[in-house]
Amino acid sequence: MKYHAVGNNDPIISGTVPVPSKRVQNFWDQMAIHTGYDVFNYDLVDHYCGLYKNWIADDELNNLQGLDKFPSVTYSSGTSESFINFTNRYNQRCFRFFKGEYMFQKLNARNSNLSWMWLDDGPVFDNDAVIISLPFSDFGDAHPKLNSIIEQCNKLKVPVLIDCAYMIIAKNINFNFDQPCIDTVTFSLSKGFWGIDKLRLGIRFKKQDDDDNLDIYNKWQTLPLHSMAIGNRFMMEFKPNWLWRTYGDKYKQVCKENGLTPTNSILHALGGEQYNDWNRGTSVNRVCVSNALGDIDE
Fold it and tell me: Considering the entire predicted model, what is its pTM?
């Protein structure tokens, strides 16, 4: 079978896809779905946001602090909807992100005619807005300049969005979100569960309700309630660190057998010169080992 809509079934690929997991497939097959109930269950939004918030807090392999300082918690269509709302809100600023960042940031700036500049090419200026992933998209760990960027942004009062889409595949991340400059933090379930990326299940944390379109959709509950109900079922069935608990040993083996350097993101490893064609603008060649970890055909 074809594991993913994009890419192939090779054990080592570019990009990022979930692990083709037998346990996840079995859960999909056995899930009791009640569409008529879910789409009219208007308690789902609060249930989803509360459950997701607690699920993040139950992370045993990362030390994340300060999310309680962000009282405005809403459903987001993956992390992408949070990005778009952030760039809309600060569209008169110059958007800054590192080379190797999730490619959506550059494409969104280009397609929306927004000003942007690599963080690698100069210091933060007072009319900037910064987007940075944690763990960093290309490194599988916190970016080594993360703290210095946050210090600059705090000093200059520059708004920052922290993209935690990959936190679901991470370990050993230590970070306190309670910083004056951090405006938005967003998470996603997409990379944690095979197939769930089609449902666009994310969450956004903000310090205040700005009454933007995402705030409004959440208040009106004009949201994919049925998808959110499925997300709730996954979070009740799987622990936040289930990927490392299940595939951690196999990950080490895959990296060793393929001459890859392990990272703190279980789907990612760093490859040698044979992967130069996949380079994303940094000093490393990030590869995806999800298919090599998969057990769907075992």
Answer: 0.96
